[in-house]
Amino acid sequence: MEEGGERLIGKKIFDCHPEPARAKFRKLLRRRLTNVYTVEKRGKRKLIYQAPWYKAGKYRGLVELSLEIPRHIPNFNRDRQNRR
Length: 84
Known about the structure:
alpha+beta
């Protein structure tokens, strides 16, 4: 993996992002919000999922998942499939 991965576990999220992302993180941390979006970087599309992290019911911070999205992936509309 060229960046990220297991070596980032336990690292400070502010060290991994520039402004204005840091300001956004401060807001997410303060309000315990979830933030989900897609981004394209170096020709790869990614889903970014940032959400509050709780351990034993206690707020512990923020978790960020970055998942690569293939160019062509099937989309299944479960609502439509269930109306048969």
